[in-house]
Amino acid sequence: MPAASSSSATHGGFGSWGWGHGWRLAEGSDLTVVVAGAANLSIAVAKGVAGMLSGSAALLSEAAHSVADTLNQVFLLTALRRSRKPADNRHPFGYGMERYFWSLLAAVGIFVLGAGFSVGEGVRSIIHHEPLVSLPIVYGVLAISFVFEGTSWLRAVQQLRREAAERHVQPTEHLRNDAEPAVKTVAFEDSAAMAGLVLAAIGVTVDAVTGSGLGDGIASIVIGCLLVGVAWSLGRDNKAMLIGQALPDDVETGIRRAITSVDGIDDVVELLSLRLSPDDVLVAARVDLHQGGTTGEAVERLGDEVEERVRREFPIVRHLFVDPTPPVHIGAPR
To answer: How confident is the model over 47-71, as a mean pLDDT?
Structure first.
């Protein structure tokens, strides 16, 4: 049997074995985003009112940060809903990568709305400083905001840990390599928000104690720089996924091992992988077959065994395409 070319790997025979598109969203992703959105909307109003009453630039910066986060939750919910669309002729592998596109827009929102306003407000406060007033309201809003942000953050962290445990990896490794983009964005946003609240409290306290007028403005600028870092990190990760990112080397090695463990396959000559979403991966492999294992019945058996083996050990591999290279006998007809 002639080896299937890479261009024909999706047209019948050994080169076409795989399974239909379909994947399961990480359980609870929608709820995590909704919880984060509700928390951000509530505290954005509280921060904005308190910031205007007190004249605190840091608190106004945090209000802008919360407004940006609230809008971002809309992007993330859109990502989750649109990425559920089934595959069609125009998008045969589905819409999973929409998660990365909308998450990238969320990163842009953090940068423009959150970081831009925070730095600008901090500079304005330093140049045109006004004494802070209504400090009890400021501290009360900061404390309540920390509780709301902490609740949202705990929800995201618990989900990340649960997903990591299901995949038998460390939470930090899961967060870096294959976490749900919406949940990862929420975790980053809430971590930055809690750090920003602490910075705002420090800046307000410094101004209240010294009366210098610098602490509040500097805190606002530092909050803006923090948001720049968060936006850059999220933007970098989502860009990498959008342009096409392979599985980690150790996972590809494991897939190679699973394929070659099937009797009848000598070696995996080449293996390519592409993430379509956190739980949807495409794998294409070119393999060498054992001598004598190229009959139609043998090829069908190998296909079933490889599919079963890979799916059992690597559930995220939803699409598997294999190009077989049978041994060539001298003088044998081609």
So the answer is: 84
